[in-house]
Design brief:
The structure is a single chain. This protein is α+β, with helices and mostly antiparallel strands. It has one domain: Glutaredoxin, CATH 3.40.30. It is built from four helices and four strands; from the N terminus they run βαβαβαβα. The mean pLDDT is 79.
């Protein structure tokens, strides 16, 4: 199983998406970015909460499987959802899920 991050974005500027991109880039953490308009309505109907731009998820999928929008969303751990994070909140979330070796303290 490979573990990765999915960032839901949008075409228009969103400060939370920009912040998430910046932090992920700072720590060299790759992510799959999916535009909210590319997510089929049928996929959105199965989520317990509303997905909006700046939502981050952890996805666990088998290696070699195609990285289509549907496949990525099927591999998502819904309990890992993080919406509109600020710096420290996102860094703590990354630490909790094993993407950072130690928590970041300012």
């Amino acid at each position: 199983m490979t573990t990765g991050i999915i960032l839901v974005s949008q075409t228009a500027y969103n400060p939370y998406v920009a912040l998430a991109r910046d932090i992920l880039k700072r720590y060299y953490i790759p992510c799959h970015e999916i535009n909210i308009k590319a997510i089929p309505a049928v996929c959105l109907a199965h989520w317990p909460e509303e997905i909006q731009p700046s939502t981050l998820f952890i996805a666990r999928r088998e290696p070699g499987r195609a990285a289509t929008v549907e496949a990525l969303l099927a591999a998502v751990d819904a309990a890992s959802m993080l919406r509109r994070p600020v710096n420290r909140q996102l860094e703590d979330w990354l630490y909790e899920h094993g993407f950072l070796k130690r928590p970041c303290r300012r």
